[in-house]
Amino acid sequence: MARTSYAIAIGSNRWGRHGSPAREVAAAIDALGGVTATSPILHTPPLGPSKRRFANAVALIETDETPPALLRRLKAIERDFGRRRGRTWGARVIDLDIVLWSGGSWGEPALVVPHRLFRGRAFVLAPLARVAAGWRDPVTGLSVRQLAARLRRK
Q: How far is CA 1 from the centre of its chain?
């Protein structure tokens, strides 16, 4: 596959072997490889039952991996950081999600790109707008800047 770019959402709300959630996010960015841009780490309130605030960021990476191959690598990084599958919305040491891909859309049962929920998540759109405001959602045709502005108006 030709070299393409991905936007990876990164989040943590648990201390891990690298330290605080913000340090876990920074360590995950280092582990990604091929990073071309990173947003600042933002601290956001939790969703769902978790009580701990999250550290969130977005990294842009370049790779020749297909979306499924990249997903496998991201899951391996999560496991290496101590991530264990558990309850949805629960506390996590690290969470890595493919949000957008310069190749457009990808759809299969195990992976859908763009991420199904990113358009409604300020904790993804705010850092994404810092590094890729002009990227377009291949489903809606709207730029990340436009999606973020729509969400802020709600």
A: 22
Specify the residue for token string 């729509």. Answer: 150
**In 10 A of CB 95, how many CB atoms?**
19
The amino acid present at 44, given as its one-letter code, is T
Contact 23, 78 (CB under 8 A): no
pLDDT > 80? residue 35: yes
User: Do 44 and 122 meet the contact criterion of CB atoms below 8 Å apart?
Assistant: yes
Please say if the pLDDT value at position 101 is more than 70.
yes
φ, ψ of residue 119 to 5 degrees: the values are -65, -20
pLDDT of 105 higher than 90: yes
| Phi and psi at residue 108, to the nearest 5° | -155, 170
Closest CA to 25 of 43, 41, 39: 41
When pLDDT is cut at 50, 70 and 90, the band that residue 95 belongs to is: very high
